[in-house]
Amino acid sequence: MMKVLIVYYSTYGNTYKMALEVAKGVEEVPGVEPVVRTVPELIPQEIIESREDMKRGRELQKDVPLVTLDDFRSAGAIAFGTPTRFGVVSAQLKNQIDKLSPLWQERALEGKPAGIFVSTATLHGGQEMTIFSLLPALLHLGMIFVGVPYSVQNLFTTKGGGSPYGPGHVAGPDNLRELDEDEKAILRAFGKRLAEIGLKLQK
Protein backbone atom coordinates (compact mmCIF):
# COMPACT_ATOMS: atom_id res chain seq x y z
CA MET A 1 0.00 0.00 0.00
CA MET A 2 1.34 3.43 -0.94
CA LYS A 3 0.97 5.97 1.85
CA VAL A 4 -0.11 9.59 1.47
CA LEU A 5 1.12 11.59 4.45
CA ILE A 6 -1.27 14.36 5.53
CA VAL A 7 0.72 16.50 7.94
CA TYR A 8 -0.92 19.59 9.40
CA TYR A 9 -1.11 22.11 12.23
CA SER A 10 -4.41 23.29 13.68
CA THR A 11 -5.09 25.55 16.67
CA TYR A 12 -8.88 25.42 16.75
CA GLY A 13 -9.50 22.21 14.79
CA ASN A 14 -10.43 23.61 11.38
CA THR A 15 -7.28 22.52 9.56
CA TYR A 16 -7.61 19.15 11.31
CA LYS A 17 -11.11 18.72 9.86
CA MET A 18 -9.68 19.62 6.45
CA ALA A 19 -7.03 16.91 6.85
CA LEU A 20 -9.76 14.33 7.45
CA GLU A 21 -11.49 15.33 4.19
CA VAL A 22 -8.19 15.03 2.29
CA ALA A 23 -7.86 11.55 3.80
CA LYS A 24 -11.31 10.62 2.48
CA GLY A 25 -10.18 11.59 -1.02
CA VAL A 26 -7.03 9.49 -0.67
CA GLU A 27 -9.14 6.50 0.38
CA GLU A 28 -11.01 6.64 -2.94
CA VAL A 29 -7.88 5.38 -4.71
CA PRO A 30 -7.27 1.62 -4.51
CA GLY A 31 -3.88 0.62 -3.15
CA VAL A 32 -3.36 3.86 -1.20
CA GLU A 33 -3.83 4.67 2.47
CA PRO A 34 -3.84 8.07 4.21
CA VAL A 35 -1.59 8.74 7.20
CA VAL A 36 -2.78 11.75 9.22
CA ARG A 37 -0.18 13.37 11.46
CA THR A 38 0.21 16.66 13.30
CA VAL A 39 3.23 18.68 14.44
CA PRO A 40 4.44 19.91 17.85
CA GLU A 41 2.63 22.83 19.43
CA LEU A 42 4.62 26.00 20.09
CA ILE A 43 1.97 28.00 21.97
CA PRO A 44 2.69 27.87 25.73
CA GLN A 45 0.37 25.52 27.62
CA GLU A 46 -0.76 28.26 29.99
CA ILE A 47 -2.10 30.27 27.06
CA ILE A 48 -3.97 27.25 25.68
CA GLU A 49 -5.44 26.56 29.13
CA SER A 50 -6.69 30.16 29.34
CA ARG A 51 -8.69 29.85 26.09
CA GLU A 52 -11.78 27.64 25.78
CA ASP A 53 -11.56 27.65 21.97
CA MET A 54 -7.94 26.49 22.04
CA LYS A 55 -8.72 23.80 24.61
CA ARG A 56 -11.54 22.51 22.39
CA GLY A 57 -9.13 22.36 19.47
CA ARG A 58 -6.55 20.42 21.50
CA GLU A 59 -9.18 17.96 22.75
CA LEU A 60 -10.43 17.36 19.21
CA GLN A 61 -6.95 16.28 18.07
CA LYS A 62 -5.71 14.53 21.20
CA ASP A 63 -5.37 11.15 19.47
CA VAL A 64 -3.47 12.36 16.38
CA PRO A 65 0.19 11.20 16.49
CA LEU A 66 3.07 13.59 15.90
CA VAL A 67 4.76 13.21 12.53
CA THR A 68 8.19 11.55 12.30
CA LEU A 69 10.95 11.62 9.71
CA ASP A 70 10.04 8.03 8.85
CA ASP A 71 6.49 9.18 8.03
CA PHE A 72 7.98 11.52 5.44
CA ARG A 73 10.39 8.86 4.12
CA SER A 74 7.72 6.23 3.64
CA ALA A 75 5.14 8.48 1.99
CA GLY A 76 4.55 8.34 -1.74
CA ALA A 77 2.89 11.77 -1.64
CA ILE A 78 2.48 14.48 0.99
CA ALA A 79 -0.24 17.04 1.80
CA PHE A 80 0.70 19.94 4.08
CA GLY A 81 -2.06 21.74 5.99
CA THR A 82 -1.79 25.05 7.81
CA PRO A 83 -3.81 27.98 9.07
CA THR A 84 -2.76 31.38 7.81
CA ARG A 85 -0.65 33.48 10.14
CA PHE A 86 -0.61 37.03 8.80
CA GLY A 87 -0.52 35.70 5.24
CA VAL A 88 2.17 33.06 5.72
CA VAL A 89 2.52 29.46 6.93
CA SER A 90 2.07 28.84 10.66
CA ALA A 91 5.21 28.75 12.80
CA GLN A 92 4.35 25.24 13.97
CA LEU A 93 4.29 23.70 10.49
CA LYS A 94 7.32 25.72 9.36
CA ASN A 95 9.18 24.53 12.45
CA GLN A 96 8.55 20.94 11.38
CA ILE A 97 9.69 21.62 7.83
CA ASP A 98 12.86 23.21 9.19
CA LYS A 99 13.65 19.81 10.76
CA LEU A 100 13.68 18.06 7.36
CA SER A 101 17.34 18.79 6.65
CA PRO A 102 18.34 15.11 7.05
CA LEU A 103 15.83 14.16 4.37
CA TRP A 104 17.05 16.99 2.15
CA GLN A 105 20.60 15.66 2.50
CA GLU A 106 19.40 12.15 1.63
CA ARG A 107 17.30 13.50 -1.26
CA ALA A 108 14.54 11.39 0.25
CA LEU A 109 11.72 13.73 -0.79
CA GLU A 110 12.85 14.42 -4.36
CA GLY A 111 10.26 13.48 -6.95
CA LYS A 112 7.41 13.09 -4.48
CA PRO A 113 4.17 14.98 -5.25
CA ALA A 114 3.11 17.46 -2.59
CA GLY A 115 0.36 20.02 -2.12
CA ILE A 116 -0.90 22.50 0.44
CA PHE A 117 -4.28 23.20 2.03
CA VAL A 118 -5.01 26.23 4.19
CA SER A 119 -7.58 27.77 6.51
CA THR A 120 -8.21 31.48 7.08
CA ALA A 121 -10.61 33.52 9.19
CA THR A 122 -11.80 35.66 6.28
CA LEU A 123 -12.42 35.25 2.56
CA HIS A 124 -9.43 37.42 1.63
CA GLY A 125 -7.27 36.42 4.57
CA GLY A 126 -4.29 35.24 2.54
CA GLN A 127 -5.04 31.67 1.45
CA GLU A 128 -3.07 31.94 -1.78
CA MET A 129 -0.22 33.90 -0.19
CA THR A 130 0.09 31.29 2.54
CA ILE A 131 0.41 28.54 -0.05
CA PHE A 132 3.03 30.57 -1.92
CA SER A 133 4.94 31.15 1.35
CA LEU A 134 5.37 27.39 1.75
CA LEU A 135 6.00 26.54 -1.89
CA PRO A 136 9.72 27.50 -1.95
CA ALA A 137 10.47 25.01 0.83
CA LEU A 138 8.80 22.20 -1.12
CA LEU A 139 10.78 23.06 -4.23
CA HIS A 140 14.04 23.15 -2.26
CA LEU A 141 13.21 19.66 -1.03
CA GLY A 142 12.78 18.53 -4.63
CA MET A 143 9.06 17.87 -4.41
CA ILE A 144 6.58 18.17 -7.29
CA PHE A 145 3.84 20.69 -6.52
CA VAL A 146 0.23 19.58 -7.00
CA GLY A 147 -2.73 21.96 -7.02
CA VAL A 148 -6.41 21.61 -7.91
CA PRO A 149 -7.36 21.81 -11.61
CA TYR A 150 -10.54 23.49 -12.85
CA SER A 151 -11.94 20.10 -13.81
CA VAL A 152 -12.96 20.16 -10.14
CA GLN A 153 -16.18 22.08 -10.76
CA ASN A 154 -16.53 23.23 -7.15
CA LEU A 155 -13.79 25.79 -7.80
CA PHE A 156 -16.40 27.68 -9.83
CA THR A 157 -19.05 27.65 -7.11
CA THR A 158 -17.18 27.86 -3.80
CA LYS A 159 -18.19 30.74 -1.54
CA GLY A 160 -15.59 29.76 1.03
CA GLY A 161 -12.08 28.57 0.21
CA GLY A 162 -10.29 26.77 -2.59
CA SER A 163 -8.31 27.78 -5.66
CA PRO A 164 -6.08 26.17 -8.32
CA TYR A 165 -3.22 26.55 -5.84
CA GLY A 166 -4.86 24.31 -3.25
CA PRO A 167 -7.93 23.69 -1.08
CA GLY A 168 -8.98 26.35 1.38
CA HIS A 169 -11.49 26.97 4.14
CA VAL A 170 -12.94 30.18 5.57
CA ALA A 171 -13.41 29.51 9.29
CA GLY A 172 -14.89 32.89 10.19
CA PRO A 173 -13.65 35.45 12.73
CA ASP A 174 -14.75 33.17 15.60
CA ASN A 175 -13.26 30.05 13.92
CA LEU A 176 -16.62 28.28 14.18
CA ARG A 177 -17.71 28.11 10.53
CA GLU A 178 -17.82 24.47 9.47
CA LEU A 179 -16.55 23.18 6.15
CA ASP A 180 -19.18 23.63 3.46
CA GLU A 181 -19.92 21.09 0.72
CA ASP A 182 -17.81 22.86 -1.93
CA GLU A 183 -14.82 23.05 0.39
CA LYS A 184 -15.20 19.35 1.28
CA ALA A 185 -15.43 18.36 -2.39
CA ILE A 186 -12.28 20.32 -3.26
CA LEU A 187 -10.38 18.76 -0.35
CA ARG A 188 -11.41 15.25 -1.38
CA ALA A 189 -10.55 15.87 -5.02
CA PHE A 190 -7.14 17.14 -3.90
CA GLY A 191 -6.49 14.03 -1.80
CA LYS A 192 -7.54 11.76 -4.64
CA ARG A 193 -5.32 13.62 -7.12
CA LEU A 194 -2.28 13.43 -4.84
CA ALA A 195 -2.80 9.70 -4.42
CA GLU A 196 -3.24 9.09 -8.15
CA ILE A 197 -0.15 11.11 -9.07
CA GLY A 198 1.86 9.41 -6.34
CA LEU A 199 0.98 6.02 -7.77
CA LYS A 200 1.93 7.08 -11.29
CA LEU A 201 5.30 8.39 -10.16
CA GLN A 202 6.10 5.12 -8.37
CA LYS A 203 5.82 3.13 -11.59
UniProtKB/TrEMBL annotation:
It comes from the Bacteria. InterPro entries: Flavodoxin/NO_synth, Flavoprotein-like_sf, Flavoprotein_WrbA-like, FMN_Rdtase-like_dom. Pfam families: FMN_red (PF03358). Gene3D superfamilies: 3.40.50.360. One of its GO terms (molecular function) is FMN binding. Residues 4-195 form the Flavodoxin-like domain. One of its GO terms (cellular component) is membrane. Belongs to the WrbA family. This is NAD(P)H quinone oxidoreductase. It comes from Caldimicrobium thiodismutans. The lineage of its organism: Bacteria, Pseudomonadati, Thermodesulfobacteriota, Thermodesulfobacteria, Thermodesulfobacteriales.
